[in-house]
Write a structure and sequence with these properties.
single chain; 357 residues; alpha+beta; Glutamine Phosphoribosylpyrophosphate, subunit 1, domain 1; five-stranded mixed sheet; 10 helices
Length: 357
């Protein structure tokens, strides 16, 4: 793939002279734009989700066709993933914190009345997205956390249950046992252990789902079990309105998956929507926001590699009022789910840099 910008163009983005060497073996900031993104479906419902969201987009579209409220549609969609014990990044079966306890975060936002609700560090409740909606509709608050969020959920009839499946417990135990050779935890004698853990170390799994209905009304939800093996009480971007999710019914919707701390510090989803307000396509709005995040990450040496590039991943998903959609990631290879009313499919998103082989 040809580079879409010059070295001088890159330096003008402000990432810094010290990052110039990062271009070796990388695509340009706009070099990975998807040719399929930003398709228009004006006047028709469209649902967009992260790469694990194919079941969610299918369910949400089915409900939109039946005339359902777009917020109810996307929540019903992500509930499928929250209930799936094999998805270790969301809901039931999600990977736990360092103490072996699953803590869930979620947010919802509804465009027509610009209302939102969220929960964070919620334990023992499988569907935090449903509780987040109740925070929005049944309280004067925007965010409930921890024990208070649990009491609120139980007051509304949610039953407590153990969210740690045998699979997620086994993964946590392997992590715990291989963390140090100076404690009293003994790892299984297997050469496979370290290799099996690789996909879960610094795992940032989440599902975001956003939708527009035929009237142009927008809604969205983001739900997650957060960073695998995090400190107890850690809250990422998913329940933070303006970071993990943001909706403006006059403009569009955006959500994210990936490293929450980087997103929180840059109000990422809010930025995506504001770039769309300025006239950028959903895809380019995601790319511009990512460029800003890369620039600020350069000030934190522990988060950049020898080439000056972020050591983490971050993805944005965007949808405007006209039904145009797009997604972008820091690194190549990420896909996202789109149901445009005709077909439900995974699309390769745009990206800033080619992932190293």
């Amino acid at each position: 793939m040809k580079r879409a910008f010059t070295r001088r163009d890159f330096l003008r983005t402000g990432v810094g002279v010290g990052a110039a060497s990062m271009l070796a073996g990388s695509e340009g900031l706009l070099g990975g734009q998807s040719k399929k993104a930003a398709a228009s479906s004006a006047g028709k419902p469209v649902v967009v989700a992260s790469g694990n969201g194919i079941p969610a987009t299918a369910k949400a579209m089915d409900l939109l066709r039946q005339g359902a409220n777009p917020l109810d549609a996307v929540i019903a969609g992500v509930n499928i993933v929250e209930d799936d014990p094999d998805d270790t990044s969301v809901g039931y079966g999600g990977l736990p914190n360092e103490d072996g306890v699953v803590e869930l975060d979620a947010s919802v936002m509804y465009g027509p009345d610009h209302a939102a609700g969220a929960v964070a560090a919620l334990r023992n409740i499988k569907n935090p997205s449903q509780v987040a909606k109740l925070v929005m509709t049944r309280t004067d608050h925007a965010l409930l956390v921890g024990e208070g969020a649990l009491r609120f959920a139980k007051a509304h009839g949610f039953a407590e249950e153990n969210l740690l499946t045998d699979k997620s417990r086994e993964i946590w135990l392997k992590w715990k046992e291989t963390l140090s050779d100076r404690d009293n935890w003994i790892a299984p004698q297997s050469d496979k252990v370290a290799e099996e853990l690789k996909p879960y170390i610094a795992s940032y799994g989440t599902i975001n789902c956003i939708a527009v209905n035929a009237k142009g009304d927008l809604a969205g939800v983001t739900t997650t079990s957060g960073l695998a093996f995090k400190l107890a009480g850690r809250v990422g971007d998913s329940p933070i309105i303006g970071a993990g999710l943001y909706i403006d019914n006059e403009v569009g919707a955006a959500g994210s998956t990936g490293r929450g701390e980087a997103n929180i510090l840059n109000c990422g989803s809010f930025s995506v929507v504001e770039f769309m307000r300025q006239g950028l396509s959903p895809e380019n709005a995601c790319l511009e926001t990512l460029k800003r995040i890369v620039k600020t990450t350069a000030y934190q040496p522990r988060l950049i590699d020898a080439d000056g590039l972020p050591t983490f991943g971050l993805n944005f998903y965007a949808l405007n009022k006209k039904g145009e959609y797009g997604s972008a990631s820091i690194w190549s290879g990420a896909k996202y789910a789109v149901h445009d009313g005709t077909k439900n499919r995974l699309i390769e998103g745009a990206y800033l840099y080619e992932r190293k082989k």
